[in-house]
Inverse folding.
């Protein structure tokens, strides 16, 4: 599985961005997908995930109510709609994928990772 994230950029606080992550392969619908982020000097942290069935999503408390994860299996793509961005949301955002059934909020359960996309939020 190869993942390609895109959509990062510079936005003012309060603004919105939509990140996309395109996956290779024919088994996208069997993958649970996650978004993680890493800010300078900090550890990578969980942001959001969506299970293979598409009906179950998880969010970190810091983004709940502002970010929305979704998927389009026909396009082999997962999205992260980010609204109400704050300076503390600035980070490199990574998408990840797993066929596993473990916790979708733990990066240890994701064997496939894409290169990150940088999100910068100006105050």
């Amino acid at each position: 599985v190869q993942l390609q994230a895109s959509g990062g950029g510079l936005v003012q606080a309060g603004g919105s961005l939509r990140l996309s992550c395109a996956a290779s392969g024919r088994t996208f619908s069997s993958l649970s997908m996650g978004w993680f982020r890493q800010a300078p000097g900090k550890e990578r942290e969980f942001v959001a995930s969506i299970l293979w069935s598409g009906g179950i999503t998880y969010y970190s408390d810091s983004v709940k109510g502002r970010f929305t994860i979704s998927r389009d299996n026909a396009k082999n793509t997962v999205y992260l709609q980010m609204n109400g961005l704050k300076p503390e949301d600035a980070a490199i955002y990574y998408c990840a994928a797993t066929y596993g059934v473990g916790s979708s909020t733990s990066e240890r359960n994701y064997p496939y990772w894409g290169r990150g996309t940088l999100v910068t939020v100006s105050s």
User: Anything to note?
Assistant: The chain has a mean pLDDT of 95. Residues 54 and 71 are 7 Å apart (CA to CA). The longest strand covers residues 91-98.
